[in-house]
Amino acid sequence: MLDVTSLQVRYGAIEAVRGLDLSVGKGEIVALLGANGAGKSSTLAAISGLAAWAGDIHFETKSLKGQSPEAITRSGIGLVPEGRRIFAGLTVSENLLLGGAVHAPPVELRRRAARMQERFPILAERRDQKAGLMSGGEQQMLAIARALMAEPKLLLMDEPSLGLAPQVVEGVFDLIASLRDEGITILLVEQNVPMSLDIADHALVLAQGRASVRGTTYEVAKSDAVQGAYLGH
Description:
Largest sheet: 6 strands, mixed
Helix content: 25-40%
Radius of gyration: 17 Å
Shape: globular
Oligomer: single chain
Number of helices: 10
CATH class of the largest domain: Alpha Beta
CATH superfamily of the largest domain: P-loop containing nucleotide triphosphate hydrolases
Structural class: alpha/beta
Strand content: 25-35%
Distance between the termini: 34 Å
């Protein structure tokens, strides 16, 4: 579904991603792992049109080169950004409607919002509340639901467990696995390596903008680099 070849992302003199190759098959969860500054978020920014890049990115065989973030979203790629980035001053319902605003007419948007509130009951309870008053876990549910309002085929998720309580993190990972089971393909950026490897099909470990380890989650989990740096073995 997604093919990334020789991807480069630069911020001035800083080369954040250096010739990365990455493939995500339909119906898979692929985990993109690594320390802070490894190039994970920059990779998602390039795919979603939020960062300038060089190389090749193809989604369902079509090049994303030169496409705007809106066009990329319309093509079927959704983003759950790092830090959630919900609109704190808007209500839960308003946040949801904005998530699908470029994709569907108002009647369809309301139907989708109703489905999201059915799926995430806390959003129904808080639908008229300002989103900034919700807890971190509730805001993460809203961020995911907002991305799902566009009915993406490929969902990019950037650190969805960041800053959440352990019991909330478990629920987030269960949700990610259920989305895959429903047919949504997922590229997951995470620092929670053990839980990511539990639910993903394949994984890459980035170091200094390059893939240092790649393979099935079993192969990656058994690698010396991951065993020593992330799994404490």
